[in-house]
Amino acid sequence: MPDETYLDPTDSVAVPRRTAPRPSSLDGKVVTLLDISKAKGDHLLDRLEALFRERTGATAIVRKRKPTFARPAPDDLRREIVGSTDVVVEALAD
Amino acid sequence: MLGGRPLAEPVTDDDPIEALYARGVTDGLPAVPPTAARVRRAVAASGRAAGELIALVPPNYGRATVEKIAVNAVMAGCRPEYLPAVLAAVEAVCDEAFDLHGVAATTNSPSPLLILNGPVRRTLDVNCGAGLFGSGWRANATIGRAVRLVCVNLGGAAPGLVSMSTLAHPGRYTYCIGEHEEASPWESLAVEHGFAPEDSTVAALAADAPLSVYDHASRRAEDLLATIAASLAVIVHHKMTHWGDTLLVLGPEHARTIAGDGWRKADVRRFLFERLRRPVRDLVPGRDGGEGLPEHVLRKFASPADDATPIPKFRSPDNLKVLVAGGTAGRFSAIVPGWTFANASRMVFRKIATP
To answer: How far is A41 from chain B (nearest CA, A)?
Structure first.
């Protein structure tokens, strides 16, 4: 063992993040489909929306779009999604 | 007074270098053990309080205090007097305009390139001359490396977990140069951006690897810049348009040829900008490669396949950042492509505080 202690280069107070629990069913849920503005993201989400409508009991399917894939979603958009939806599907494409 | 916690006890190894590897806090190269004494010296050299918050580092928004940055700078091998430059560089990459969240997480390859201007280049012995993108200079090697360690240890940009670059490039170990202001016929990059010649500054550019351009034959500004334009034309992909900040590093001999014809940097930018426009018909997806103008842009043209309307490679001449650097022998320049989609990362400057 080294004879000196070393200082921690990481942020020791950062709280580890956990993903939210996954729902067992989409029945009665509001689903947001988030397009990150990558080419053909809409193709993928169009197909997913059709499948969700056909196969699930989701009460609403909402489409949202980030202004650019190169940056995080603006705070307003994040708040809007968090406050009004149960499930988010974020579409990466290209 | 340092406030940081000690690292947890090492798992298995009594070798200090191996102990740091075991904790997963290096960049793959051995790191200098961040003892309290070393960190204290670095903090003292900054003239700032250990607990002062410099930035929150995306994408995990870890708290980069002077002390935390000093720990990473020590590990990178920085001398204590480098700390003000490292602090300014961390501030620059954490500026909203730099978009470190995108830079750190993208599948593209960028790494922050740090460009030093002003007296700091001499006081810290920053390589601005022969081989400046290469190895052999402690300041270049360790200031760039310190910023990388901050991005990983405080920003959380662990390769393959959060940082999803498909390829990346060797500049992710370190990427730091100085402008060879003494060999430049023009004002420096920093002075062009509003700083005084006696200011020490750091600029950060989200950058791909440098691409060298060789032209030993051109003796006129127009001929030489035609060569350089042809290499600039293919960056990102050859049909990319409306690209943003990108660096052109003119070797001193090339700069002299251009300035010898009475050209200023603004003339260089304008010439390149105009020469790098291509007609819509050359940019249609599916011809010479699948990439090209996106559908929503093509829809603005009645007959894209015949349209001669010129579309610029860069959004504006000012996106072409020009500086002079490198050894005084050799007719070479380098292009450093930015990762600069519209509304994404831009070059950011910070003044380096004198302690």
So the answer is: 13
